[in-house]
Amino acid sequence: MTPTLDHIAAIVLAAGSSTRMGGPNKLLLEHQGKALVRHAAEAACQSGASPVVVVTGHQADMVEAALAGLDVQVVRNPNFAQGLSTSLKAGVTALPDSADGVVVALGDMPLVDYRLIRRMAAAFDAAPGCLAAVPLHEGEWHNPVVIARALFPAIEDLTGDAGAKKLLEKHRDQVIEVPVSDDAVALDVDTPEALARLGE
Predict the structure, then answer these.
(1) What is the pLDDT of residue 2?
(2) 8 Å CB contact between 120 and 178
(3) Of 123, 147, 135, 122, which Cα lies nearest the Cα of 183?
(4) Segment 188-199, tens digit of pLDDT
(5) CA end-to-end span of the chain, whole Å?
(6) What would the DSSP string read from start to end of 108-159?
(7) Which residue, among 33, 5, 184, 52, has the nearest Cα to 194 in the 3D structure?
(8) Which of 91, 107, 90, 21 is nearest to 51 (CA)?
(9) 3-state class of 46 per DSSP?
(10) At what angle do helices 36-47 and 114-125 cross, to 10 degrees?
(11) Which of 51, 175, 50, 163 is nearest to 109 (CA)?
């Protein structure tokens, strides 16, 4: 039985139109026999985060079919073409009041596993009053991040094709950095070159 994370939800962002991939929907490309988006959703589910909300948009029927059988709550974002911020807002809006924070994961990061998500959640829990926890790899912030409920109202003000990074940078002194040596946090499979690296 998967242990649950107390009051931590998860959002998997899986609505984008994969324009940088130059043709196919990156989320439906396979790694080790599974669609990339399924890897991301399974990691969120196995982490014990609850609920796990997957935000879909582009080719929603096909992306949702790739998630068949998983214990996830699907939220369709009709405004996905307006950028990542709209999907993040759709996911946050769907969270229950019991969620003190949320792990935000990307559907195109298949190497991020449940252990990393649990580690990020543990770092967040260990620092009462912090607004976020981010993985720090080779001096850079990456994903997945944990965001406190206190920032949910500010997420509503985000616009365009940007996630929460700028928002977190505004509150840098209240962000916990978790050093991570695993290259998984640095591999977004959003270009043919990144897909080739994944294959290696």
Answers:
(1) 46
(2) yes
(3) 135
(4) 667 667 667 766
(5) 33
(6) T-TT--HHHHHHHHHHHHTSTT-SEEEEEETTEE-S-EEEEGGGHHHHTT--
(7) 184
(8) 91
(9) helix
(10) 40
(11) 163
Contacts of 186 (CB under 8 A, 6+ apart): 137, 138, 140, 142
Q: What is the distance between the alpha carbons of residues 198 and 185, in angstroms, rounded to a whole number?
A: 12
- If you ran DSSP here, which 8-state letter would residue 59 be given? B
Domains within the chain, CATH numbers bracketed: 8-199 (3.90.550.10)
How does pLDDT run across 171-189, given as a tens digit for each residue?
999 999 999 988 877 776 6
Q: Among the residues of the chain, which ranges form H helices?
A: 36-47, 60-65, 84-93, 114-125, 152-155, 165-170, 192-199
Structure tokens at 200: 């290696």
Cα 116 to Cα 135: distance, rounded to the nearest angstrom: 9
Report yes or no on whether pTM surpasses 0.85. Answer: yes
The single-letter code of the amino acid at 100 is D
Distance CA 21, CA 28 (A): 12
Mean pLDDT of 50-68: 96
Mark residue 50 as left, alpha or beta (left: phi above 0; alpha: psi -120 to 50; beta: remaining). beta
- Report the alpha-carbon distance of residue 179 to residue 177 in Å, rounded: 6
